[in-house]
Amino acid sequence: MKRGIVSIVIPTKNSTAFLENTLKSIKAQSYPYIETIVVDGNSTDNTVLLAKKYNATIMIYAPKVQKGIFDAPHKRNYGMARGKGEYVYWLDADMELPKNLIKEAVALTKKGYDGIIFSEDRMFF
User: Fold this and answer.
1) Alpha-carbon distances, residue 66 vs 59, 81, 85, 117 (angstroms)
2) What is the pLDDT of residue 125?
3) Which residues pair with 40 in a beta bridge?
4) Residue 21 near residue 103, CB atoms below 8 Å
5) What order of strands is seen across the sheet that includes strand 57-60?
6) How many helices (H) and strands (E) are present in the chain, helices listed first?
7) pLDDT tens-place string over residues 27-84
8) For residue 90, what are the β-bridge partners?
9) How far is residue 66's CA from residue 64's CA, in Å, rounded to a whole number?
10) For the chain, first and last CA: distance in Å?
């Protein structure tokens, strides 16, 4: 664990169509110490290449889950367990962050909050 770093974990599978906006919003954050982790479930599109373009750490993980069960929580846990950051934030591949969101979240934890949750609705105000 590296102090001050935020590990942002994004589970993906064939997410090229919308992942770039998510990665751009991470790159545009005002908080400078971010590790982006993309946990990919063996995409057959350009998801992994796109993530590499934005210097994300790529982890290939396709959990064995029962048909009809959503595997994103398993991918998030996998990435969070391997992240180097003091803080963890997870996103879906189609979410975009306002420029100061990570900086604001870290500031709140430094004020004593144990955890911060921003809903998707909050992210677009």
Assistant:
1) 21, 22, 31, 29
2) 37
3) 12, 60
4) no
5) 57-60, 34-40, 2-12, 85-90
6) 5, 4
7) 999 999 999 999 999 999 999 999 999 999 999 998 888 888 888 989 999 999 999 9
8) 9
9) 7
10) 32
Q: Which of 7, 9, 56 is nearest to 34 (CA)?
A: 7
Amino acid found at 47? T
Amino acid at 18: F
Which residue ranges form the domains of the chain, and what is each CATH number?
2-117 (3.90.550.10)
Q: The tokens of 86 are what?
A: 């003091």
Residues 6+ apart with CB under 8 A from 101: 29, 118, 123
Q: Which residue has the tokens 């367990």?
A: 81
Burial profile 70-99: b = 16 or more Cβ within 10 angstroms, e = fewer: ebbebbbbbbbeebebebbbbbebebbbbe
